[in-house]
Amino acid sequence: MRRLLSFLWCWLALATASSHAAGTFTVCFEEWPPYAQLSRTGQAVGPSIDIYRQALRQAGIPTVAFKEMQYNRCSEQLKQGLVDMKLFVLDNELPGLPQAHEATEYWQIAAIVRQDSSLAQYQGLADFEQARLALITGYLYPEPLQAFIQARAWPATDPTQAYRLIARKRVDAVFLDLLAFEQSNATLRLPLRPLHPVVARQPVYAVLAARHPELPKTLDAVLARMKQQGEIDRLYRRHTGRTLTEWLHYAGAVDSAETSKTP
């Protein structure tokens, strides 16, 4: 067994080295519609995919392979140097690895309620003290939002089930990404709506393998230029119907102190 494991490890290392030698730059990500997801043909699509493919090309990396995988596995592969870059990482989530600091995506957590909810807008977690809140299995939130939801949690296997539970009045609300909800409900057409402004907004970044210590600076410069030239807004509009600037405006201003205190 040890010989077999040793052989498999050597084979994987050689395959990885061969991939880098051939000039293929590998980016891993977990599906996060609409930013990045797999099409019916298994191709990675979404504004984030197009943004980073273009940014890496401008940074001198013409051949990029995007690989979808479970979030923690993606992190481990990055740490081991089996992939070159990971998308959608919170600031300082992977200390010790080179990180870009130009955000092209934002995790905008919105309260999703029924159309007939008495709540007209989001004013604070205190409005949900007596609410039943859907919690997707394995979904983690920043504290103290995680603890607040956990104390009132009704389990759901995925966002679609959570939306249906709200529509059926089994639960009162769920806290999920605003863009993901808008895309999903455009198909589901459930009597739901997001409250504005969003509960929290957190930028996410690209993190690089240790062998790319200088690439984040180059990427930041390229991404900043793409923002200034309106290219990132153009790609968002192409995939989502709104520019990134419009999505941030639609989400509304966020009280940065709200999720740093217990209601």
Describe the structure.
The chain is α/β, with parallel strands linked by helices and 263 residues long. It folds into two domains: 2-104 and 204-252, Periplasmic binding protein-like II (D-Maltodextrin-Binding Protein, domain 2), CATH 3.40.190; 106-200, Periplasmic binding protein-like II (D-Maltodextrin-Binding Protein, domain 2, 3-Layer(aba) Sandwich). Helix content is 38%, strand content 21%. The chain has nine helices and eleven strands. The chain has helices at 2-21, 47-58, 71-79, 145-150, 159-167, 178-188, 215-228, 231-240, 244-251, and strands spanning 25-29, 37-38, 44-45, 64-68, 85-90, 105-114, 133-136, 153-156, 173-177, 192-194, 200-208. The strands form two sheets. Strands 1, 4, 5, 6, 7, 8, 9, 10 and 11 form a nine-stranded mixed beta sheet that branches. A hairpin with a 5-residue loop joins strand 2 (37-38) and strand 3 (44-45). The termini are far apart. Residues 24-243 form the Solute-binding protein family 3/N-terminal domain. This is Extracellular solute-binding protein family 3. It holds the Pfam family SBP_bac_3. Keywords: Signal. Residues 1-21 form the signal peptide.
Domain tally:
2
- Give the biggest beta sheet: 9 strands, mixed
Order of helices and strands: HEEEHEHEEEHEHEHEEHHH
- Tell me the number of helical segments per DSSP (H or I, 4 or more residues long): 9
Under CATH at level 1, the class of the largest domain stands as Alpha Beta
Organism: Pseudogulbenkiania ferrooxidans 2002
Domain Solute-binding protein family 3/N-terminal: 24-243
InterPro entries: Solute-binding_3/MltF_N (IPR001638)
Keywords: Signal
